[in-house]
Hints:
With 207 residues, this protein is mostly helical. The longest helix is centred in the middle third of the chain and has 24 residues, at 68-91. Helices cover 68% and strands 0% of the residues. α1 packs antiparallel against α2, α3 (56-63) packs antiparallel against α4 (68-91) and α7 runs antiparallel to α8. It has helices at 13-27, 34-48, 56-63, 68-91, 103-112, 117-130, 135-148, 156-171, 178-186, 192-206.
Amino acid sequence: VCIALQWSGISDVALYDLIEQRLNEILVRKIRGGDDLEIASWYAKGLAASGMDKYLTVMRRMASTRQPKLAHYAEESMSRIESYKKWNPIISDEKNFHPDQPLQVNRFANMLKSGDSELKLMALKRMRYEHIYSEYLLDIVRDDLMAGYKSADATSAGIEVFESETGVLGDSRNMKYHDSLEQVYSETKDRPKLRYSISQAMYELKR
Length: 207
């Protein structure tokens, strides 16, 4: 559950309060590692996805433990709360939902259209991990790639998005996107890093 919360846009206080309770139960014990450490780290990530400051208290408690990994995950999660304050309304914005698409596909579509590199990357990575290759999402990926590839290597974030977008299109094995990839390949002759990513994607596309 805590994994999926990272791209759900959910703001259900009752759910997050339950996660907070479970995390506190772990923290009162002496954590030496193992399952407790792993579970606590995921609870912290889940609470970060709330975008709510009320959970900073338990995260500070987690950060104050003598377990370095716990402190690391707590600090990381506290820093993510501000991001999720901005992201959750974007992910869950129903006005852009397509009625014929599943809820998760609509959420990913919102992320892909957000203009936020980190949010785009989160959606692209989950699409690849979960093998979600609906043409509705792939069309959004292609359109974003075609609109942004000319300036993709201006920043490291731009390159990462470019590589992930070409990777998703390649992994889809959908030849509908071959011509778009070929066009980008032909127009990036002086940009070897981008060109390599496209060649890899075109190889995967044809496998």
